[in-house]
Each structure stands twice: as C-alpha cells, then as structure tokens.
Fold each of these.
Amino acid sequence: MQAAIPSNNHNNGSNTNFVTFSGPLEAQLLHQQFRRFEHESHSTFEFTNIKCNSLDTSFATFEYCLLKSVNRTYKYGSLKVKLLKVPVDKVKLNLALYKRLNGYKPFLYNVTFDVCKFIQNRNSNRVAAFIFNLFQPYSNINHSCPCNHDVVVDKVPTSHMNEQLTKILPFPPGDYGFYSIWFGNGKPRATVNVYGTLS
C-alpha cells in the first residue's frame, strides 16, 4: 500500500504532485502532518453530500445512497449495495482525500489496500485502519472474503466522523471529499464519494 502527500512542485498550477511512501513511514507521516492541529482543533464535522455510482450494473447496484437529517444535531449517511455476482473473493479499496481549494484538489494521501487481507489483520496497517474505521463500525463488512451478501453501511452519524477527524487524527478546517473506488474480482465496480465540512 502507498500513502501520498503533496510535494512543493505543481504541474502548471493545476494538479498537485505526490510523493509516495510505504510501510511504517505512512503512519509517521500522517502523525507529523496533523500533530500541529491536535491542540488547536475545535472543528465540527458536517456531512454535505454523498454520491454513489455503479460502474458495472451487472455486478452491483445501489439500492439507496443518502444523507438524512433527523434534527439539528443528528445527521447520518447510509448506503446499500446489492451484489449480483457472488461470492466476491477479491476486494480492494482505493481511497483518496481531497480538499476544496478553488475546486477539489488531492490532499495528503491516496491509498489502495486489499480489504480481504486487511480484515484478517487489522493491525497490519494504521493508515488503512484509520480509513476503514470511518465507516466499518456501522457496516456489515465484518468478516474476510469471500463476500456473499449485500453490503450495508447503516446510519454513520456526524458524531462518529467528528470523533475520527478532530480527535483520533485531527484535520484542519475546510471542505473535504473522501473519494473511493471499490474493486471486486480485479475490476473497478463502484465509486462512493462522501463530502463534508469541518468548521
């Protein structure tokens, strides 16, 4: 797996270049990047949008993909993916963090990991563990491959995201996009993009 951070060089000012790292350096890098925000972060996370797209409707479709506001203090995100060709015995996830700076730009990392292997040993990669914990406690993704059932992420509350992004690994205030590509049996099958604001 690789983690990436922006370098100081820019390609015609449009795209951020990335420097990649592997192994234990990933977690150390994230810690160094965010340590300065730890004592000054008083931000609150708020969902702003969620977009789900099936790249192969013969393989998987979304039954629902939504944000819901119950009241002023309780808002959550949910989705359900119907898997049409089971079992799925090879699952990979690519997740990239974007921050809005005159449009959404790559910010800090872009990682790809084998979900099946990671679930077998969740201590194997701290970066993957942080990403996975953004949604896993509210999902039925709780066992290793093969996956032979629909995938549900049920009512991830803003309070959980707020805990992860302001206390577990403090992020600076701003508008963020969490862009994910899900691979099944070696091919990209779906994308899920979640947007939120830390203010």
Note: Strands lie at 3-11, 15-21, 45-54, 60-69, 75-83, 91-100, 104-114, 151-157, 174-184, 187-198.
Amino acid sequence: MFSADRDIRYANQMLSDACYKALPIRINLDLIAARESKAPLIRKRPLLRVQAIHMEEQKEKKPERMPRPSPQPHVQVENPFQTPQTGSVASVASASGSYFIAEEQAPPLKQRKFKSARLVGEYEKPWVKEKEPRKIWDKVIFFGFLIVGLGIGAYICYDGWRSVPHDNYCPLFEDDFRNGINPEYWNHEVELGGFGTGTFDWTTSDPRNSFTDPEGLHIVPTFTTDTTDITEAQINDGYVLNLTKTGGDGSCTSTKKIPGGDCSVRSNITSGSIINPVRSARLTTRGKLNLTYGKIEVVAKLPKGDWLWPAIWMMPEKNTYGEWPTSGEIDIMESKGNYGDDYDGGRDEISGTLHWGPTTVLDFFWKTTGKRDIRRTDYSNDFHLIGMEWTPNYIYTYVDSRLAQTVFVRFSTKLGNLWKRGGFQHMFVNGSALSDPWSQTGRPNTPFDEPFYLILNVAVGSTTGYFPDRQGDKPWINFSPTAGRDFWNARNSWMSTWGKGNERGMTIKSVKMWREGKC
C-alpha cells in the first residue's frame, strides 16, 4: 500500500530535474491511486493528467544549477479503476519558471470533411492531341525488328528441319552381342603390318582382345609380353613372329599376294625393327554383310589411353575403281584416346571423313571431313549413338542425333563428280597427267556407289600422320624406321594413362544396319 502524496512528490522531483537541465519536456503522467487502504476512500475523481511544458529558453551556454523545488503540499487523486475520467481541473505551479496544467479531459479533435482535388468537367488535354513522331518511330522500329528477328529464327529452324532427309529404310541387320560374337556376320582380321596406316598393334582373334559380356562387345588392347610367351628381350631383338600358313601358325588373314610384313616380322636391334608390342582386335563384316545406300547406327563407348585409335568405318568389298583411296573409304567415327585437356583433338572429339582420290598422295579427305566436340566430359565416360546415312545424293555422319552431324557431303550433277570437285584434271604426278577413274559411271557420287563392309577396331599409334608430330609429347616421329621401338621404349610416359580393365578398350553395345528403300 502506498500514498498518492508520495507519488506527487516523486513526479515533481523528476520535473524539477528536467527543468534544471533546460530541456523542453512534455510529460503525460497518469497517476494511479493507492491500493485499498484502511482509511475511507475520498469521493471519486477523474484520472489526473499532468502536462509539463518548458516555457523559458536557455540564455547562457552553461546554465546555473537551479535549486530543487519543494514538493507541493497536497494533491488529491482517486483510484482510476473505480472512477470514470470526468471531473474538475487541478493545477500545480512550480518555482522554476515552468508551469504544469492538470486538466480534466483533452478537447476533442475537430474532423475536417475530406474535399477531393479531382478536376470535374471537361478540360483540355494537349498531350493527347499532340503526337510525337519520334516516340512513334521508336516503337515501330523496335517491334518491326522484333517481328523480323522472330521470323528469321523460325525460318532457320524450319529450314534445318526440312534439310534433314527422311528416306525410307528397311532393317537389314542388328546385333547386341548377347550371344557372343556371331561368326555368321563377323570376321577377325589377323595381321602385323598396320593395314597401311603403320600402327604398332598386332590384331588377333585372342578372346582377351575381343570378347562379350552384358555390356556388349569389348575390343581391348593388351601388351604382348602379358598375353604371349614373347619376352621383353625378344621384342627388341632376335625373335621371328610368323603368322603365315607356310612356316607359321597360319592365323594371318591378309589377302595380299605378297603379304610381307602383314604376316611376319623379325626383331632386330640394329635396324630398329621390333615385334608388335601391343595386341588388339579388328572385326569386320567383309564377305558376309555389306551395304550400298542405307543407314548404320552403333552405340559405343570409346577407350581411355594415350595413342589409342578407336574407329568405326567402312571399306569397299571390291576395289572396283582401283587401290585405296580410289575406291573410297567411309570413316563413320574416329577418335584418339588421349585426354582432351592435354591433347588437342583427344577423346572429347570425334570425326567423320570420306577418303577419295586418284592416288595415295592425292587423298582429298580434307575436303570431306568434320568433327564434333563434347563439353565438360568426353566420349569415354558414357555410351553414345554414332550413325551414318548414305544415299546417292549425300553421305553424312552424326553423333547422338541426326542434327548433330560431324560431316555432310552432298552429291549432285550441279556440283559435278568428285573428279571435277577435286580439280584433278589440272594436276600432274611425276610429269604425267592423271587418268579419271570415276567419270565413266556418269554418277556424281562415284566411288561411293559400290558395296561397303563395316569395320570395328582399336588401333595403337600410327606413322602416317593421324597423330601429328610434336604434339602432346608424342614419343616417336612419323615415317621413322624406329617409330615402333621409340613408342615402346617410352611406355612409362603413356602406360599409366590407359584405363583400367575394359576402359582401355572400345565397348560396342549394339550395331544396326538398314538398307535404303521400302521393305
């Protein structure tokens, strides 16, 4: 229980302190009456509202300390919880030049009726009547170019869709290798000579180099010292490897009349000749399945490893127009196993190429080749669809989509045959004019008008330029007689880059072939 007088004294003391500090202050003080006391209650009065307003301004920078005012003798208040806020006015004066006004109730605020400032009636609007040509032309130009741009974009999309041929194809062959390597369609080519490209691998029929599992067909290169009885010393000197039928094991499949180095080799440390240090595999459909105009799709994952050369390609069943490249070659896909960040044109890039020309020196493949890169990954990390479409009017190769073409070559009488397109009629070799091997057919796509068979292989190295010299720390020089030995002696620099297990090989999940025309 506390006294109302004591509360009044406390309020006056606070106001005196504020006045002493010369601060303008306005205080609304609601005094609450004492709790229930033993004395009888005074008659009910309204809540006392005290307002203090400082009326004097400070005239000096450092005001003198003013004495504390004495507390007021007596102010009566009642319990606000029992008294309505109505009653008489009381006032309390201070001795410090400020005054206090205690009022019974604040006067009500006057409400002014809202008056709208909106203009009523008809008023002139000159900005509507006056037209600004500059703003109008700004809009016309913007929307005009927008419409033109959208139209051009739509036409480009339509033209791209329209340019993709939609020919009829009849299924010819399909193999997912779930039942192994079917000898009814596939051959193993066994040779040592590199098939004209100077590769360092020995292609075999060994099941460690070509085999199947639930993933598909694997073509995996292995080291000769790991899969044969040939030692490291014998690879370099004093060993004869004979695959011929006369004096050898008879496994060589070369069709040359004089196979020479295709079927046998002798290691000699003096000449630099060595036994092929790597074994791999090469599967073909030669003599069993061929195609003239149609479509091929192969789902494959490429190998990891420096100087590996995976390829999916086609060669003619017969050299109708002459030896390579006169009768043509279709490279559906070629790549390199080198890591793309370290080697320009590595396994993050694949290419498609047509080889053609009247002589080996005049192979004009560079006119009909293209490539397709992949970003943030490479073609050895997952399976990709690799395809080709071939008609009398064009040949094109692609990856993953028919729109993602690696190379597109069109044939037409307007463009002329390949003899004319190559400009060979103006060329001479050893002082002699060249003879035209193709024009007698009258077809603009000759020599790509004959049956071709399919080849799947993983080669190792090359001496004919597929791996350019002085690029990517290449350890041998093209056309060098010791290229194979230099490659093998530098194996510590590239062996660690080859993938583990099947990753160093190419995996083919499926092969599909269609013939042009209705079934």
Note: Confidence is low (pLDDT under 50) at residues 22-63, 73-77, 85-103.
Amino acid sequence: MRRKVIRCPCGARHNVPDGAVRIECPKCGRIFGKPKLAPNQTREMERRRRQMEKK
C-alpha cells in the first residue's frame, strides 16, 4: 500500500494509509477527508441527481 502525506496548516505532516477516509491531526485536531452528510442531505442529493437524469 502506498502512504499519502498530508500537510496540516498547523505545520504538522502525517503519513496516511491508502483508503483512509477521515483523518484527525493529533497536534491541532483538524479533520481531513470527506464530510459526513446528514441523512436528509443524502436524500436531497439523490433527488437532484434523478432530476438531472430526467432532463
């Protein structure tokens, strides 16, 4: 597996294993990665996607 290096604005650098979704910086607590969507946001995105497919 390849490791990815992320650079946090606080100056820290972290090795991240491939496939990691949410990474928290141990130095400042900032979270990197995809945000978790609320269930209603997910449904809204699906609804919009279906509307675009119909057009």
Note: Helices lie at 39-54.
